[in-house]
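Reopening this ticket.

The earlier resolution said the output was attached, but the attachment link was broken on my side. Pasting everything inline this time so it's all in one place.
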Amino acid sequence: MTDPAPMPAFARQARLAGVLYLLIIVAGLGAELGLRGPLIDLDDAAGTAAAILAAPGQFRLAIAADLVMALCDAGLAILLYLIFRAASPGLALSAMVFRLIQTVLIAANLMALQAAWLLISGPGARVGANALALVFLDLHGHGYDLGLVFFGVNSLIMGLLVWRSGHFAKIFGAGLAIAGLVYLIGSGLRFFSPEWSEAFVPAYLLTILAETAFCIRLLFQRNPL
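Inline output:
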């Protein structure tokens, strides 16, 4: 087995990964909960269209925040591979691939939001445009959950990598693995048992806690344990 990344390279990579992770958390939660969420009601097409048209900057900023998140996610995928490849090259590569697939899906899925915007804001919008725009907004939610299927697999692999690496306390690995299970179960419910999906939403607090804890640990990395 090759030696872990030498200091100070290891600490530098870990801290940079922590910065990107923090940006991902802030941008992702900000876009979904702070910016886009208050504008969308999937039971009210006309009300949703009116809310978006009344706050176009807020809607566009949500798209921009998601794009920032995707860009940071790609960078984080590469950095985490560099950090953990010494511990297990195969697992580290697998984790990077699954995270990058998630990144591509979420970035491409932003076109659903853009399509909704074009439908409700275009000149001479046709009858039914609001309803069709709502379909695209709902499709974006499903596309996001599809991306989280791959991120769930990534989180399970990352949990195993963190557990085995010796660089971090094993509790961080356990937390990431639990987050992975939550993502997989939540996305599965969204697609196959949507009637249970809303009841499962509080479980996502576990993912926020686990990922934020690991993010903070990366930010304050100095020496390998």
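Reporter confirms the inline version is readable. The chain has eight helices and no strands. Helices lie at 9-36, 45-54, 56-84, 89-121, 129-165, 170-192, 194-200, 204-219.
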